[in-house]
């Protein structure tokens, strides 16, 4: 296995992780921003007010994107398994 081949596999893995994490984190960040603007506009300084909406949106994102995320991980895993013979040469 050449170092370039390993770097390609590692780059693909990092890209996959970045995409999967973004699908969960970005909706939570957007809801957190909306709640923060609401808190600033109304002068409500309750720390727990921003936690529950972010938790709900994160769980909804996991429910909505879960099938897609598992499919992406399975495709990457199967591609790695198919590449095992290339690693031996």
Q: How would you describe the overall organization of this protein?
A:
Belongs to the FliQ/MopD/SpaQ family. It is found in: Cell membrane; Bacterial flagellum basal body. Keywords: Bacterial flagellum, Cell membrane, Cell projection, Cilium, Flagellum, Membrane, Transmembrane, Transmembrane helix. Role in flagellar biosynthesis. The protein has one domain (3-81). Helix content is 85%, strand content 0%. The protein contains three helices and no strands. It starts with a helix and ends with a helix.
In short:
This protein is mainly alpha-helical and 89 residues long. The chain has three helices and no strands. It is a multi-pass membrane protein.
List keywords for this structure.
cell projection, FliQ, 89 residues, 3 helices, mainly alpha
Question: What is the mean pLDDT?
Answer: 91
Characterize the largest beta sheet: strand count, sense, and whether it forms a barrel.
none
> What's the total number of strands?
0
Beta content comes to under 5%
Low-confidence stretches: none
Coarse morphology: elongated
Number of domains: 1
Number of helices: 3
Structural class: mainly alpha
| Terminus-to-terminus distance | 7 Å
Order of helices and strands: HHH
Q: Rg, please?
A: 19 Å
Helix content: over 70%
List the helices and strands and how they pair.
Elements: H1 3-42, H2 51-82, H3 84-87
Helix pairs in contact: 1-2
